[in-house]
Amino acid sequence: MRWPVSTMRLLECCDNGEFSLTKELDDDIPRYAILSHTWEAEEVTFKDMIDGTGKSKAGYNKIRFCGNQARCDELHYFWVDTCCIDKSNSTELAEAINSMFRWYRDAAKCYVYLWDTSIQKRKASDKLQKFSWEAAFRESKWFKRGWTLQELLAPGVVEFFSREGKRLGDKITLEQQLHEITGIAISALRGTPLSEFGVDERLSWRKNRQTTRKEDEAYSLLGIFNIYMSLRYGEGRENAFERLLSKIEKPPKGLNRLECASEAVFNSYAKQHLPLCLLDTRIELLRDIRSWANGKDERCIFWLNGLAGTGKSTIARTVARELFEQKRLGASFFFSRGGGDVGNAQKFVTSIAVQLAESIPTLRRYISGVATEYSDIANRSLHDQWQLLILRPLSKLDNGKCLISYVLVVDALDECDNSDEISIILHLLAGASSFKTVRLQIFLTSRPEVPIRHGFHELPTTQHRDFILHNISPSIVDRDITTFFDHSFRIIQQESTLEPGWPGMEIIKTLVQKSNGLFIWAETACRFIREGLFADERLHVLIRGSTSDTKTPEEHLSKIYITVLQNSAQAIFDDQDRNKFYEMLRDFLGSVAGLLSPLSIKSLSSLLSISKHRLDRILKDLHSILYIPENETDRIRLHHPSFRDFLFHKSRCTSYFYVDEMQMHQALANKCIRLMSNCLMEDICKQTAPGILVSEVESRQIKQCLPQEVQYACLYWIQHLQRSKAQLSDNDQVHQFLQAFFLQWLETLSWIRKYSEGILAISSLQALISASESPCLHAFICDAAQFARYNRSVIEQAPLQIYSSALIFTPKQSIVRKQFEKFVPLWIHTKPNVQARWNTNLQMLEGHTDGVNSVAFSHDSKLLVSASSDSTLKVWNVATGALQQTLDGHTSWISSVAFSHNSKLLASASYGGTIKIWNAVTGTLQQTLEGHTILAYSVVFSHDSKLLASANGNTVKIWNTATGALLQMLESHTKDVNSVAFSHDSKLLASASSDGTVKIWNAATATLQRTLESYAVSVHSVVFSHDSKLLASANDSTVKIWNTATGALQQILDGHTVIVNSVAFSHDSKLLASTSAAIVNTVKVWNTATGALQQTLEGHTDTVKSVAFSHDSKLLASASCDGTIKIWDTTISAPQQTVESHTSWVTSIAFSHNSKLLASGSEDSTIKVWNTATGALQQTLEGHTDTVNSVAFSHNSKLLASASNDSTIKVWDTTIDALQQTLESHTSWVKSIAFSHNSKLLVSASYDNTIKIWNVATGVLQQTLEGHTMPATSVAFSHNSKLLASASASPDGDFTVKVWDVITGALKQTLLGHTSGIHSVAFSHNSKLLASASFDTAVYVWDVATGVPQQTLYGHADTTYLVAFSRDSKLLASASTDDTVKVWDAATGAAQQTVSIPFGISSLSFNKTNTSLVTNIGYIRLDSTELFPKSGSPPPEIGKSKRQRLGSGKSWIIWNDRNLLWLPPDYRSTKSQISPSGSTIAIGYNTGKVITIGFSTADIPF
Fold it and tell me: How far apart are CA 425 and CA 452, in angstroms?
């Protein structure tokens, strides 16, 4: 919730002793006092103060009292509600009431003036009263007033005064009386946040309080519950309270978007059976923890580490329970290996955030706001989630002078299955010490595993306290275990009606000795004894035998597990039945222990193909080692992970029960494949709409269609295969499964938001396959991995697009495409013409909202960082393409980014002149280097990571990365330094400058070693080879390679035709990559030994700014101004592929009016004609000698005209694809052509400032129209073909529209009115009106006959560039660069409708019925109720879609404004057209490519 922006007025103490109202204040409000009182007769109002008439009123005495008291307290301002609010203004009153709590809270002092409490002599009979005034004080009307509740609780200092103005005491000294009078808890009076008190308790404080207006009973509680609510006086008390309670009880919507690990919390349903520490156990340790939690130790983390079975989790649950009951538990997260959501950190932060919102209600609105603002928060990095969901909300807490304390309990961190995530979590938790408004402490338990010990080693010792549990004195541990046994046996004795004192202290001592300090042994033993038919017999089984035959705790634990398993078989079993039962038991327990996430009984039955009856029998006597819920949908779990270790350890487990781990994983993999083969299908969640997004489907629906076991099988089958170390082969079950269900498997993973895991899984299969022995399977897996990576963006968001977009844009020879092409939906009848094979581009990463300027790989090649003009850094997972982190902090474009060579740091440089150093693991900002006064162009780390060099103006600066200190300034260049690079031995530093030189410096001494004269205007980039022997520089359009020892020029790499922006060596120094600027947009890869060009990588649609090799030299990343990053495979050399297309930019596309043909014109001087039914190229029309600027079909579709920069127009016969006429007369470029509506004439407009009209049949020039002083860029025939209108879009001079007689060529009208260039002209269908659209934002409607402007239409906020009349000439539509289309009444000029459009359109007209606008991006529906509204007509429809039928968006083809088909980034363009039939879309590209996609609209499923 956001509080309304409200201002307040104060009363100011004047020098003459009087008071005056200040102006309205919103910022810089001075310290002030505030009055609390009860309203009486003759109160001074705001109007009285303005008029100066209030001094005579009795209420002025209270104002005078408050002012004088404020002066005494050295406060020059004060506030009184009666006269500081203009209550005649309902808006101001509403804002004031909603702000009142805050105003009282922020006051320096609150004075309570009690008119009904007077100081008087103490009566002799009044023996019980401490003060003479106390009886009146207790009965004061002030305590019965509704509004005074918040006036008592909100301020930090509240002082009470009698009617005479004498101080009676304050909120502290009168604490007990106030508590007794009001019933308000003393802790609330002392300033404990009100959110700490329950709703019912806070509502109880209003008891016996009254307000003048009934609604105020509710409104006076707004501040108590920290909510905002509109005021509706007249709604009555009940309605006001109903609204108030709905606000209180309604959880913020944003919280519902945060997915939580339901079993993470200490008191989750699944953990209700788990024990706490018994009374009188762990006494010393718990006392130590309580002391730490109560602030006796400044260290924010308490790390309790201990070996398996020593009781860490029980202690953690006990600590969490105590803190929960004290209302000091912020959140808890109990990890459990193989526990699904609690086995990893994916939902760690979101779970903590939701719990914090529950524990600290004042956080709810902040956390909810973040979840609403960042809809993808759950998919962001742990760092981003922590920053946004935890740190940001906590930093906004304002608890006045009261520092509140909360504890997070994190148990079994070692059971998080990703060591990298463990390290990140430790770093994030360590940041808890930075808060000033809240004390956040972390109680953390784990085994002393290496990643955790290493993580704590990297943290300052001032941040964590370590306690080693297994180092506690054995006598103390034995004492606690004895207490545990004594407690447990008392319960068993009562349940089994055994004799009192059973089994005796000697038996307990024996069991304590057997436990060997392990609480898990004692717990297992008690569960085993308790679940038996006869407890005493079970006890004898345990104590049977000597205690000296085992030595280690591990051996003790193994013996009790064996005992439990052996006793699970009934005594009546014969040997055959017993062995069969043991075999069933072993297989079942092996599966349960081997599961990578626990499953319910029901799901296990389905996955393992075991009947419910058999499962019940197996589970009957396993309660001592398994948690077996009564509800079959709840998950079965091991009581302790030590049982898993036992089961898979051959020397610890008997031959009956030992489970071969690899065989078990193979069996589970087989069971997963069987289950998926039976369950997976297309559209498994029954959504139908092909463009439906995962985020639009309720999780309940997904869970219903994808039960637990199916989700498990899809997620883990490949991991089980990996762990089985199986060798896969052609046509085995894995190969057959993938050939049948690969797409359905990916679809399912997308629904459960695990698509990235699928990419990793399918790639990991390659390690299990021999390419030589299983060539078919290996080829399938390689193709499948490329398919999954390339289509990640769409499948991850819209799973059903895997059957449409993903298939039809995948190369034609792709194995996956050919295998699954039958799944392409019927509504796609013409597929786009795409390349035959995969190229070297592995992935395209999208996410930045502006151009990408720089990229860098981490040194393990797992991460890629990108820097953008959107002022953010993004860190990506190279394997999956998933976004890991977004780093915000810069306020302007980021020009350069670099990883340190130990991969621990990131450096970024911005155009704002700042350089920032970040922790690469957590994303936290380490340093901001502010020595640059102008643009910082480039940053680079030395190879020992100790130094950072930056380019700034004509200087290079060298910094200490640890301290941020400036060490050196290198000055010699005469112009800006564009790039800097360290040699790999860190001894040399190179700088490239716009002065045309490269300079090599001694990095240690800052002395200039050598200047390399490149003889270029500017050197844009420089880099050392990794053996430091070579230096490459980007010089204008060439790349030069230099010998660093001698300075000799070794190679000139010539091949780029425009400026080279960036160069990079591969890490084996064998390759060099270079990037080019706009128009070409390519990356070139060179052989450094020979200088030969090895590859030219194409695909970016704008300047390529940066390139970087991975450290294994296998990958190349490129960053472009088109906002994307591409990752290329450098190990393969894909042959140049030929897709039928132009060889240069497509300049124009047009459909024939019968929709059968598509024509495209290009800079390559050709026109191509395409068959729209098949998408095939029908003809290439050659003849022009320069760029073809425009193509147009005649209205009968028989002719095609093309206009070119070669000054000619050519007319082609489309029926035979032959040249019919070449029209020559223009002396400059021809930019625009149009056929008359009868198809007999053709008009052309040229840069020679003339317009020519031609006879299409004969090619004869009929008229040359001269009069424009600038080239005409828009021409239009009237619908009767008798008139022609022309206009120029040039902003320089010619702002006229001219109307010509087509037959005579006479100038009929020159229309003056526009004040800038004119983009578009259009005749009405009755040829009586003409409309024009201009840079000046206006639309003019002219009377063609008189030349008089009928209407001048204003309303657009930017340039208008298209106009069109309706068929009946009554409506006019105009399109503007303000992203709107407006519809006007052509007769009156009244605006009828405004329709938002997603981006610019290139064509505009009305359909035949005038109910829709027809554009190149599709139909836009018009609301008929808004056109010419009449009195009594129904209101316009609200919220209905404006887009109709087929249309195009930026990344989607749409149908009736719903997503239909996703366009991959390589297939997006603003040059699109929809056929007149509305069933085919054509798109032209700067690369020369043209595609058509045809749709069977009757088969579209919505």
Answer: 10
Q: Which residue type does 1116 have?
A: L
User: In sequence order, which residues have a C-beta less than 8 Å from that of residue 959 and are 6 or more positions away?
Assistant: 915, 929, 931, 947, 948, 949, 950, 965, 966, 967
Q: Can you spell out the DSSP letters for 379-439?
A: GS-HHHHIIIIIIHHHHT---TT--EEEEEEEE-GGGSS-HHHHHHHHHHHHGGGG-SSEE
CA distance 1160 to 1170: 8
Q: State in Å, rounded, how far the first CA of the chain is from the last one.
A: 38
Report strand pairing: 464-468 vs 301-305.
parallel
Give CA–CA dist 273/313, Å, rounded.
Answer: 13
Q: Is the pLDDT of residue 1320 over 60?
A: yes
Helix (H, G, I), strand (E, B) or coil at 652: coil
Angstrom distance (rounded) from CA 486 to CA 479 = 11
61 alpha carbon, distance to own chain's centre: 59
Lowest mean pLDDT among 32-36, 640-644, 747-751, 1359-1363: 640-644
Which pLDDT band holds residue 1435 (cuts at 50, 70, 90)? very low
The span from the CA of 528 to the CA of 1473, in Å, is 75
Q: If you average pLDDT over residues 769-776, what whole number do you get?
A: 91
Residues 1058 and 1069 sit within 8 Å (Cβ to Cβ): no
Residue 437: its pLDDT value, please? 66
Greatest Cα pair distance, the chain, in angstroms, is 128
Asked whether the beta carbons of 1105 and 1087 are under 8 A apart, the reply is no
The rounded distance, in Å, linking the Cα atoms of 671 and 61 is 87
Instruction: Please list, in sequence order, all residues whose beta carbon lies within 8 angstroms of the beta carbon of residue 396, skipping any fewer than 6 positions away.
Output: 366
485 burial type by CB count under 10 A (0-12 exposed, 13-18 middle, 19+ buried): buried
329 neighbors 359 (Cβ within 8 angstroms): yes
- Is residue 329 exposed (0-12), middle (13-18) or buried (19+ Cβ within 10 Å)? buried
Beta carbons of 990 and 997 less than 8 angstroms apart:
no
Mean pLDDT (the chain) is 86
Q: What is the pLDDT of residues 495-547, one digit of tens each?
A: 888 888 899 898 888 888 887 777 888 888 888 888 777 888 888 878 774 44
Q: Given a cut of 70, is residue 1232 above it in pLDDT?
A: yes
**Cα 459 to Cα 457: distance, rounded to the nearest angstrom:** 6
